[in-house]
Design goal:
Blueprint lengths: L3 E5 L2 E3 L4 E2 L1 E5 L2 E6 L1 H7 L5 E4 L4 E4 L1 E6 L1 H9 L1 E2 L6 H14 L5 E6 L12 H5 L7 E5 L4 E4 L1 H6 L12 E5 L5 E7 L3 H10 L4 H13 L2 E9 L1 H9 L9 E7 L3 H9 L9 E9 L29 H13 L3 E6 L2 H11 L11 E4 L8 H7 L2 E4 L3 H4 L3 H5 L10 H6 L4 E3 L10 H10 L18 H7 L2 H6 L16 E4 L4 H7 L4 E6 L2 E5 L3
Parallel strand pairs: 1-6, 2-7, 8-15, 9-10, 10-11, 15-16, 16-17, 17-18, 18-19, 19-20, 20-21
Antiparallel strand pairs: 1-4, 2-3, 4-5, 7-22, 11-12, 12-14, 13-14, 22-23, 23-24
Helix pairs in contact: 2-7
């Protein structure tokens, strides 16, 4: 029999209701209710923990992150917040001087912020990279810029052609300029995997950071072989601080074939392979999100449709035979409609429900199809802050249906909250605030519509019960009888105050009845 704990003296939000007390036995929740009832059923020897007026919430779930990329972003060059190409070049030069034997890998730059009003090119990087590979990802993750050396080492020579689902940037004479979009990024991303593979220790440090935010489960998306192998190599002692669920990239599906037959099991309590991910379009930032009408600020462009429908169906049917759920990336409205069609009437017997990742632009015409298919929509409230320029991209009428969370919930659709880190900050409290307030501290928003704002309880449900539902695991994301004792204790008497305080309100995080984080006194 494991240890037993009675949480009392505060307020408990189970993910569905408010209670006074919580009883944990052998790593599971066995009772939630009033203090008097909890004390009557408390087993002898149970430790009573005085919550001292604090809130006890279900452990937070981020349903869409990229663990290997977060780890690289934390240990490599951070380019977020830069306001010019000149500043980017200086950042690359300083990094090159500080680490003279390492390739220069970074992410987070945003051309919409640059004073030069253009995108960086290989010529910019070649001035600062000291003859080494330089590969820098756009903040969206759907574009990058690489130095001439990196292009050469990735096998992209003068005769390189655009793949069907992407494009390579070119100078006026047709020579490569170092930019790559969508599928054209693959040779350079493969180079990154070769020269900077994810390490088990680095990923564990990322999980420890996640625990400090109050996260107890993360779903890592588009997982390749290198990331799965690194996760498999993280030792079980000391215990993991966060549960990890993986959605494989389609090209890595053979790993599930092996593990589902005579290899390691697909699913365990701490780590499991849940599904597969495919991309149907790109992102708003590089104008590769697939729209039904052209971009307002680029009338000649309406985004990219990625992949062939028949190839998707074949791969997803193969995954479904292994019990793996489909997760289709779709940001633009035309891509969301396409993803809905691909999932319609299919994949009902997988362990987790089908998902549409992002579902960022959902005008009313799409709602009947979404209601029919009932896929879980995995959304990123923090994008309201990051995509503050979206009105310029989409125009004032169309942008009204961007990140329309309340409308989607009121139509009975299932939503789960996430960050898409490192392409947005891992901090779930930022997303929680954005879902409630819609406007950042500087008064900016991708879509400030107050009618789309959520209550504090509804926002927390996105990152708790919604996440557990998205992963097909009802024992995650709530503190009801029989669920895992994953919880976060926050220094606040009211949920609204906790959301305003953010990460600073996190006092303790518990995974399976075991404390994994305690804030310094």
């Amino acid at each position: 029999m494991g240890e037993s704990y009675l949480w009392d003296g505060g307020r408990v939000f189970t993910g569905r209701r408010w209670c006074e007390a919580l009883l944990i036995e052998d790593r599971r929740v066995t009772f939630v209710g009033t203090s008097a009832e909890a004390r009557r059923v408390r087993p002898s020897g149970a430790e009573t923990i005085d919550a001292r007026g604090r809130l006890v919430l279900p452990g937070l779930i981020d349903a869409h992150v990229h663990l290997a990329e977060i780890t690289r972003a934390r240990e490599e060059l951070d380019l977020s917040g830069l306001v010019s190409i000149a500043e980017l070049v200086e950042r690359v030069r300083a990094w090159s001087e500080r680490f003279p034997k390492r390739p220069v890998l970074g992410r987070g730059w945003d051309a919409d912020r640059f004073s030069e009003r253009r995108w960086p090119t290989a010529r910019d990087l070649d001035r600062a990279g000291a003859g080494r590979p330089v590969i820098l990802y756009h903040t969206s993750g759907h574009a990058l810029v690489a130095s001439s050396v990196a292009l050469q080492e990735a096998g992209l020579g003068p005769d390189a052609r655009d793949p069907p689902d992407g494009k390579l940037g070119r100078e006026s004479d047709g020579a490569l300029n170092g930019l790559a979009y969508e599928a054209a990024m693959r040779p350079l991303s493969a180079l990154v995997d070769r020269i900077a593979p994810p390490s088990p220790g680095g990923i564990r440090r990322t999980l420890e950071l996640a625990s400090a935010f109050g996260l107890t489960t993360v779903a890592t998306m588009n997982t390749g072989r290198e990331e799965v192998e690194a996760l498999r190599q993280i030792p079980g002692s000391p215990p993991w601080p966060v549960r990890v669920r993986s959605y494989l990239r389609l090209s890595a599906l053979d790993m599930a074939d092996r593990q589902g037959s005579d290899g390691e099991p697909l699913s365990g309590e701490t780590f499991g392979i849940v599904g597969v991910k495919g991309f149907t379009d790109g992102a708003f930032g590089p104008r590769t999100a697939w729209l039904s009408e052209p971009f307002a600020d680029a009338p000649e462009e309406s985004g990219l449709s990625l992949g062939a429908d028949e190839e998707f169906r074949t791969a997803l049917d193969r995954a479904a035979a292994l019990g793996l759920a489909p997760a289709l990336h779709a940001i633009g409205d035309r891509a969301v409609g396409r993803a809905t069609g691909l999932l319609d009437g299919r994949y009902g017997r997988t362990r987790a429900p089908p998902r549409i990742e992002h579902a960022a632009l959902t005008p009313p015409a799409l709602l009947p199809g979404l209601e029919r298919v009932r896929a879980t929509l995995v959304v990123q409230p923090g994008f309201l802050y990051s995509d503050w320029w979206l009105r310029e991209r989409l125009g004032p009428v169309r942008v009204r249906w961007a990140y329309a969370f309340r409308t989607l919930l009121e139509r009975g659709l299932s939503l789960a909250g996430s960050s898409d880190a490192p392409y947005d900050p891992l901090d779930p409290w930022r997303g929680l605030r954005a879902a409630v307030e819609r406007v950042d501290p500087l008064g900016r928003s991708a879509n400030p519509a107050p009618e789309e704002a959520l209550s504090a309880e509804a926002a927390v449900q996105l990152y708790t019960a919604g996440g557990g539902s998205a992963l097909g695991e009802p024992r995650l994301g709530t503190l009801e009888e029989g669920t895992f004792a994953d919880l976060v204790v926050v220094r606040a008497a009211r949920l609204e105050l906790a959301l305003r305080q953010g990460q600073s309100s996190v006092e303790e995080t518990w995974l399976g009845g075991r404390r994994t984080f305690r804030a310094p006194a």
